[in-house]
Write a structure and sequence with these properties.
By secondary structure, this protein is mainly beta. It has 3 helices and 12 strands. The protein has one domain (about 1-235): Distorted Sandwich (Coagulation Factor XIII, Chain A, domain 1). The strands form 3 sheets. It has a 6-stranded mixed β-sheet, with no helix packed on it. Strands 2-1-4-9 form a 4-stranded antiparallel β-sheet, with no helix packed on it. The protein has a two-stranded antiparallel ribbon with strand order 7-8. It is globular and about 50 Å long. The protein binds copper (II) ion (CU). Its EC number is 1.14.99.56.
């Protein structure tokens, strides 16, 4: 019975609200608008657009889908968010309804220009990951649950750009993985252009790097998971797969 009830609640949550993604970004008091999925295609050439385009709020289900890198179609944006290494970048989401699964922030160096890179060919590294804060996998307090604003307001997610990171142009990729459907993970990625400033000269080594797609697989028990098993009703740990987080 518990299994039926939780599945039904998940289904109703999906019917009642659209899915979503990162809509805007802030650094300090400055607001950087992302792609507006209800806006026109002329946004693609807008001098203010910092986020790669995405046309659909639905999740990506396949771990091998090239759109896993920067959503669909993930066409490049022209502008960059300027940010000093060591300061916080905040991603602003619309009302978010899912509560279970990890959230990650990734960076990839673009070289000279993020407009000419193919995101699925880049070397990505994690700068932050957020998982199960306490309680059980099934019903515990995930960062994703704490992130949801049940009053329907915007959900804010702030993470620090590593202080030692060398200056340059980077794609930043915010990823929410929602695991409420049995053995059917949902991936919500969005990417934006960052111009990192600072005097650091650090850069992560190969052990921190991953390809996207490539990093997630249905062979990973933390990704291909049924959170409603009796085992997960009792489990109080969840290890986020992939390479370690690089803190600079
Ligand atoms: Cu959804």
């Amino acid at each position: 019975m518990w299994q039926l009830t939780t599945s039904l609640l998940g289904f109703l949550a999906h019917r009642a609200f659209a899915h979503g993604g990162a809509l805007n970004y802030t650094v300090g008091d400055t607001w950087y608008p992302g792609w507006d999925i209800n806006g026109g295609s002329d946004q693609i050439d807008a001098p203010w657009l910092v986020q790669r385009s995405w046309t659909d709020t639905n999740p990506i289900f396949e771990t091998t889908n090239a759109s896993l890198a920067c959503n669909t179609p993930g066409a490049p944006a022209k502008a960059y968010i300027p940010i000093r290494a060591g300061s916080n970048l905040t991603a602003v989401y619309g009302p978010w309804v899912h509560t279970v699964g990890p959230m990650l922030v990734w960076l990839a160096s673009c070289g000279s220009d993020c407009r000419t890179v193919e995101p699925d060919k880049l070397q990505w590294f994690k700068i932050a990951e957020e998982g199960l804060l306490y309680g059980t996998v099934t019903e515990g307090e995930w960062f994703q649950r704490a992130f949801v604003r049940w009053d329907g307001g915007m959900s804010l997610w702030s993470e620090r750009i590593p202080e030692g990171l060398r200056a340059g142009k980077y794609l930043v990729r915010h990823e929410i993985i929602s695991l409420h459907s049995e053995n059917k993970p949902q991936f919500y990625p969005e990417c934006a252009n960052l111009e990192v400033e600072g005097s650091g000269d650090s850069y992560p080594s190969g052990e921190y790097m991953a390809k996207i797609p490539g990093v997630w697989s249905m062979d990973q028990p933390e990704i291909n998971i049924n959170i409603y098993t009796p085992e997960n009703m009792n489990r109080t740990t969840y290890k986020i797969p992939g390479p370690p987080v690089w803190r600079g």
